[in-house]
Design a protein that fits this description.
Shape: globular
CATH topology of the largest domain: Rossmann fold
Strand order of the largest sheet: 3-4-2-1-5-6-7-8
Largest sheet: 8 strands, mixed
Oligomer: single chain
Order of helices and strands: EHEEEHEHEHHEHEEHEHEHEHHEHEHHH
Structural class: alpha/beta
Number of domains: 2
CATH class of the largest domain: Alpha Beta
Strand content: 15-25%
Radius of gyration: 21 Å
């Protein structure tokens, strides 16, 4: 039985859940799997052995304290294959590769472009341009040495395929029926509410969502359910005094069954990322989760997102920087029940037929078989 080790130093519960999903699929495929990740204690979860790292916030502190610990734990395991998920682990991955281990780099974000897309002061922007170049050079050099690379979008995969021939795409699609309860709430019994699930940030449309809620007719009595943590925490202070904040229900970070319960009561899912370079080519998991839950989506009008949503007929795309456009879309779906419910059904069918995790997990195990048997 091959021993696989997944490694991450992230502290986000959303990200840790994604890694556990991958690890559980590998256990089901017959692999012995260890996950090295921030956690409260060592243990076993659904067949996945967890070696706990201290939860350290801040990239610099993680690099000083988390990464050396993660590398030492990984090296002691002597696993058949190491699969790491964070660019800050590149040097640890190279050290494992130099020692003769098979190593896969899983790329979740186009980090060089992400660094440039974040708003900052002039002096900081200059520093970020330098850092962006350094990260890209490091990633490109390291990718040549790794056994394989896995990307979550075609855009990221295309960047690495010219460097590493063993580059594959594994989409982060939802687990079928995970967010679709057997006794679903009837559409007529649902609240006049919209939901956003994920990291709550300005660049993910926080201000625009709150402003749009204020622009809705009072007669709708609409509510905005925010599920997740604010990033940074100070972003909450910037919006709590805005008109529209009185319509917000702060849910905090929720377990999966509680997320399912929230989505089972609302009528719309929002994914209104700003048009930044690392957003426009992304495939946000929340978009597919809303579809899986059977609710229509209101999403940013990016070409890739527009194509998917229009082809599947599962929602409406809008300018994510225009609260008036967002409000019009929300009002339309809250006042056209039959059309909204049909959009939700179409999205759910698309997940069942094309966008479920089972298909992607088979891709992942196929990649592993290829890498592990290639001598």
């Amino acid at each position: 039985m091959y021993h696989i080790c997944h490694i991450t130093t992230v502290h986000s519960p959303f990200d840790t859940r994604i890694f556990l999903k991958e690890c559980r699929s590998l256990v089901e495929a017959g692999y012995r799997v260890t996950l090295i990740a921030p956690h409260t204690h060592n243990g076993t979860v659904q067949g996945v052995r967890i070696l706990a790292l201290p939860s350290v916030r801040g990239r610099i502190r993680r690099m000083l304290f988390g990464i050396p610990r993660a590398y030492m734990l990984a090296r002691e395991l002597k696993a058949d294959l190491y699969h790491f998920h964070d660019p800050e682990l590149i040097l640890a991955g190279l050290a494992l590769r130099t020692g003769g281990s098979r190593v896969i780099y899983d790329i979740h974000e186009d980090v060089p472009r992400a660094l440039l897309s974040r708003k900052s002061r002039t002096g900081v922007r200059f520093f970020k341009r330098i850092l962006s170049v350094m990260v890209e050079v490091l990633e490109n050099h390291a990718a040549r040495w790794f056994t394989a690379c896995i990307a979550v979008t075609p855009h990221i995969a295309n960047r690495f395929r010219g460097i590493q021939s063993n580059t594959f795409i594994v989409n982060n699609y939802p687990i079928l029926n995970e967010l679709n309860p057997k006794g679903r709430t009837q559409w007529s019994e649902r609240q006049n509410a919209v939901a956003y699930v994920g990291v709550i940030a300005m660049t993910r449309g926080l201000k625009e969502m709150v402003r749009a809620m204020h622009l809705l007719p009072d007669t709708l009595h609409a509510r905005l359910k925010l599920v997740g943590n604010f990033s940074p925490a100070s972003s909450r202070w910037e919006v709590e005094g805005m008109a529209g904040w009185d319509t917000v229900d702060e849910m905090g970070f929720l377990a999966r069954q509680d997320v399912r319960d929230v989505l089972d009561k609302v009528r719309i899912g929002l994914v209104l990322f700003h048009p930044l370079s690392n957003h426009t080519e992304a495939q946000p998991n929340k978009l597919f989760e809303y579809m899986s839950a059977g609710i229509p989506v209101i999403a940013s009008d990016f070409p890739r997102w527009r194509q998917l949503i229009e082809e599947e007929g599962c929602g409406i795309v809008v300018d994510p920087l225009d609260p008036h456009a967002i409000a019009r879309a929300i009002e339309y779906l809250l006042t056209h029940d039959e059309e909204a419910e049909e959009m939700g059904r179409k999205g759910q069918r698309a997940i069942e037929q094309r966008y479920d995790w089972l298909t992607e997990s088979k891709k992942l195990t196929s990649i592993y078989r290829s890498v592990l048997t290639d001598t």
